[in-house]
Amino acid sequence: DIAKTITADFAESQNIALSPDQIAELTHVARNHPRLIELAVALLQEALPYERLIKRLRDLSHEDMQEALNEMILKTVEQMRHEAKHGEDATALLHNLTWLQATFPFEAIQALKPASITTDDALEDAVTTLGRYTFLQHDKNTGRYRLGGLVREALGTPDDDTIFNAYADYYIARAKAIFVDL
Q: Per residue in 113-147, is it b (16+ CB within 10 Å) or e — as a string?
């Protein structure tokens, strides 16, 4: 019952209308686990229709909850990569953004964009796609972005010196602008 309440609360907070039967079914296939329920409800916004989400949850092969969460995220990343109009660029950008831990400005996204994204429009399309799949959240009040912690845990940080160097260069430039230039 508590898990059903959590499901209903998450759905309400995302303005997603679920019937009591759908709440019960989603709660059950999400194994009554709050983090899996939260991820599943978030995916209902635009990424997955209800029936496909339920099927994906039923098909999870891991008993361990963290492994099941990772599996759900990785399957959704693959879905985005193959089905979304800008999925390839969004997937490449997502992997690069796993370097970022806290909230960050759009300039950090620009600094970490992959080489395949060559225009501002392509970057905006990739960011929009990541938002649609709930991998990247934007806070309208602060203007900052946040990568979901579950995503970072599932994907890990890429072992790529060029991405790390872009990450380091961006933050060194920010520190210089704050502490030297000002």
A: bbeebeeeeebebbbbbbbbbbbbebeeeeeebeb
